[in-house]
Amino acid sequence: MTNTPVGESPATPVLLATPGAPRRRALPSFQSNLLTAVAFAIAAVICATVEWWLLIYFDASLVLSGAELIVCRGVEIFLGLVGGTAAWYGILAVTRALSANRLAAGGAPSAGRVRAEDARDAMWFVVGLGLTALIVAFIAFLLGANHGALRTVMFDFGYMWRGHNALLHAFWLNLKIFAVTQVLVLAWALLVAVVRLLPGRACAPVRTLAIVYTDVFRGVPAIIVIYLVVLGFGLARVPGFDSMSKDNQIFWLAVLALTLVYGAYVSEVYRAGLESIHWSQAAAARSLGLSQWQTLRHVVVPQAVRRILPPLLNDAVALQKDTALTSIVGYVEVLGAAQLLKNKYFNLSPVFGAALFFLVITIPFTRFVDFLLKRDKQRTQGGS
Amino acid sequence: MSLLELRGVQKYFGADHVLKGIDLAIEEHEVICLIGPSGCGKSTLLRCVNALEPIQGGEIVLDGELVSGRGVDVNALRQEVGIVFQSFNLFPHKTVMQNITLGPIKVLKESKAEAKERARILLARIGLSEKANEYPDRLSGGQQQRVAIVRALAMQPRVLLLDEITSALDPELVSEVLNIVRQLAVEGMTMILATHEMNFAREVASRVCFLESGVIVEVGVPDQIFTAPKQARTAEFLERIIAAGRL
Ligand SMILES: Nc1ncnc2c1ncn2[C@@H]1O[C@H](COP(=O)(O)OP(=O)(O)OP(=O)(O)O)[C@@H](O)[C@H]1O
Ligand SMILES: [Mg+2]
């Protein structure tokens, strides 16, 4: 406190570093970005050249005819144009930077700043377009490698089509496992999460049990749990499962194994959600005379679930995919069926077909939940 | 017999001694205003009366019945004693109507139709009928606080605790909330309010209670407290308030 103003006692805390002094900062003067623009232009031209070369390589490997060839050529032309556009924007960036410099030198610095901003926009376009084009062209290059071996081994639509019936039937089993497990997981995980949050000394034993459960089942790979539960329970003839038919037994044991694994994950998601609800909400509910249970049921859980829908969805998608793990215990779901087809045709395309089935479900599912979240937000939150 | 009686109430937060033996008796239809510097324990006192905080000594008696300590049915107590918070604490996932009817339906076991009907009457009285199906986040602060008061009133409590209900509001919204409190006072609601609105305290209070560092320094009718405080500390506090332009 060196700068204490006169007449003020030195004990008064000073909030401003230099009290009374006017604060002024000059606006930064015009800065040329010509050099950067030139660098971007060079990069863009190199990028386009490499991309075109990759595409030409891909083209040479095409031993197709008819519609397939037309589609491939169409894609090549499109990618070629994208690469060219990137180069074009690189040149645009340079001309804009030049004109910005000219404006600034000619006594119009604010017009120059606008032009410089335009030049920067063009540079970002170079990055966006050029990078995308390069990556896509590189994938084409891989597909063209070794005379397009990857294409014939993995993406042969003829084999996929021949196997589609078997795959479709098998995929139905994946959906069944997923649906049943997901419902069980949502309920079971909520129970575990609530138990973990129970207060008081009397609940310490169950709380510990819940903690041990989540730690163990999150720590073990799902594939091992499935292996142990499905094969182990089957071998040990555990009552309840033993009287089932073979198929039913595998189905329900797989459901059990996946519920155990995903229950542990999802319970942690729930717990984070429950803890994120401010205690004042619970206080308000309790002050109305609602019991602890009613407070959870009507106030805390509904808010927590809204908040954790995205991570819950994330885990649902993961679970849907992990139903394929049950193929290792001999369950003929879509991956198992695809493997049988692969052995029959000596071609991996049916496995790629199985992958497509998962995509067809998960992508619309994700979009749908996004839509629900957005709608809920619009309804409950003030916009203006 | 007093409606609500605090006898030697002690409250600790860990080693922090926040309420140091509070004695206060509140008659039916009385309006008690708690005033005092920030951190003196006003909110804590109200939260103890509502059993949102356990007390470590003394007792609280409501209408001749002991309502503090172990084994007391706190949910039953809270049906008799409502509280409104500084930060409204409405439930954001429920509409105004659902906020108000939740308690009556789940706790008082009223039918939905009955609870809604009463909620509608209450909303009409505070001029918010058209907001019944709106969500709280789409209301102004003043509107939210009025809904919060109605939510507490819907439980038909015998005592209403108001904890600085206007201090989170813009100045021009304060009066719409205070008008409701004023009206409740006229209608004979028993209330304890913690407040920094000294003019309002002076106007509606039956008695004003000055609290400092967890001790009741002085209790008296508003005219006496504000014009002729007996204790030097009360006078000091009021001087500071006047210097801040709040009285
Ligand atoms: N949950 C808590 N845990 C620990 N200490 C607390 C808690 N709540 C309040 N306190 C402490 O108790 C004391 C009294 O707080 P209280 O909120 O009752 O003050 P107040 O009179 O309401 O103040 P204000 O006028 O600022 O609202 C403060 O020193 C505060 O730090
Ligand atoms: Mg307070």
Describe this structure in words.
The complex is a heterodimer of chains A (384) and B (247). Chain A is mostly helical and 384 residues long. Chain A has 2 domains: 34-153, no CATH class; 161-376, MetI-like (MetI-like fold). Chain A has 11 helices and no strands. The longest helix of chain A has 46 residues, at 109-154. Mean pLDDT of chain A is 86; it is low at 1-5. By secondary structure, chain B is α/β, with parallel strands linked by helices. Chain B has a single domain (4-243), classed as 3-Layer(aba) Sandwich (Rossmann fold), CATH 3.40.50.300. Chain B is built from 9 helices and 10 strands. Chain B has a 6-stranded mixed β-sheet, with helices on both faces. In chain B, α5 runs parallel beside α6. The radius of gyration of chain B is 18 Å and the shape is globular. The model of chain B has no long low-confidence stretch (mean pLDDT 93). Chain A binds chain B through residues 280-281, 283-291, 294, 298-299, 302-303, 306, 379-382, and chain B through 50, 52, 74-76, 78-79, 82-83, 85, 87, 89-93, 102-103, 106-107, 135, 137-139, 151-152, 155. The structure holds adenosine-5'-triphosphate (ATP) and magnesium ion (MG). Adenosine-5'-triphosphate (ATP) binds next to β2 and α1 of chain B. Magnesium ion is lined by residues 42-43, 163-164 of chain B.
Question: What would the average pLDDT of chain B be, to the nearest integer?
Answer: 93
What's the overall geometry of chain B?
A: globular
Q: In whole angstroms, how far apart are the ends of chain A? A: 45 Å
Uncertain regions spanning at least 5 consecutive residues of chain A: 1-5
Helix run count of chain B: 9
Low-confidence stretches of chain B: none
Mean pLDDT of chain A: 86
Largest interface: chains, residues each = A-B, 21 and 27 residues
Number of domains of chain B: 1
Overall shape of chain A: flat
Beta content of chain A: under 5%
Give the N-to-C terminal Cα separation of chain B. 34 Å
Order of helices and strands of chain A: HHHHHHHHHHH
Estimated helix fraction of chain A: over 70%
* Radius of gyration of chain A over all CA atoms, rounded: 31 Å
Instruction: Compute the number of helices of chain A.
Output: 11
Largest sheet of chain B, in brief, is: 6 strands, mixed
Quaternary structure annotation: heterodimer
- How much helix, percentage-wise, in residues of chain B? 25-40%
Task: State the CATH architecture of the largest domain in chain A.
Answer: Orthogonal Bundle
